[in-house]
Amino acid sequence: MVSSILPLTLTDVAVRRRGKTLLGPVDLSLEATGLTIIIGPNGSGKTTLLRAMHGVERLSTGAVRWSVPDEQAQHRQAYVFQTPIMLRRSVADNLRYPLQLLRLPRAEIGARVADWLARIGLEERASLQATRLSGGEKQRLAIARALIRRPDVLFLDEPCANLDGASTRAIEALLQAALDEKTRIIMTTHDLGQARRLASDAIFMLHGVVHEAGSAARFFGAPCTEELEAFFRGDIIA
Ligand SMILES: Nc1ncnc2c1ncn2[C@@H]1O[C@H](COP(=O)(O)OP(=O)(O)OP(=O)(O)O)[C@@H](O)[C@H]1O
Question: A Pfam family name for this chain (predicted)?
């Protein structure tokens, strides 16, 4: 494996639509390892920031750079949406598809699919149409379908929105295993408990800009701004 596509650097990144600034200016650098949590009130720009990092949001100014050329970096990252999108195929075929696109040998595809079916506990449902799975199962499958390609970086937008405790735990276990395998994870969440459980570093978005950022211990233990303290208390932030 060639060296990581990280660090990721955002320089003066802004996204404006119809005269309104949705994001920025943002200057950020994300190191090679760990899990970054992006938190903030509704509409603060979390998803826009995530999409900008992934290269799917048209920038009005600035640049997003990886340590390798953009095209290479694109191939080595994956993005999982808040509402998982299932191919109208079986559960196993949903896992097989990204590997077929990579033109991996059949035996390798078979082995990886079997491994991931077991990891997400869906071996018995391998031939079921994926659209029939429950919300939690769909999200596990969507994450597995992203990780099966072994990306350097996994972006997740609110992966546990609307999921119960058991489903959330199952997804957090998947993310922890991915971290152990050195996948870099960058995700948004509204769940502060989840943020504390998973983050190695965190970003607090407010009104489209990074209001505060830092290592998890400092960020959660000793927030620097009144707004972040208020957000942790559950106050409404204007
Ligand atoms: N394509 C677009 N055109 C115009 N406005 C947009 C567009 N996409 C997002 N917005 C607006 O940009 C702002 C930031 O949206 P974004 O989805 O990034 O926020 P968020 O922090 O992820 O919010 P939430 O927590 O509700 O998911 C919001 O006010 C949203 O309505």
Answer: ABC_tran
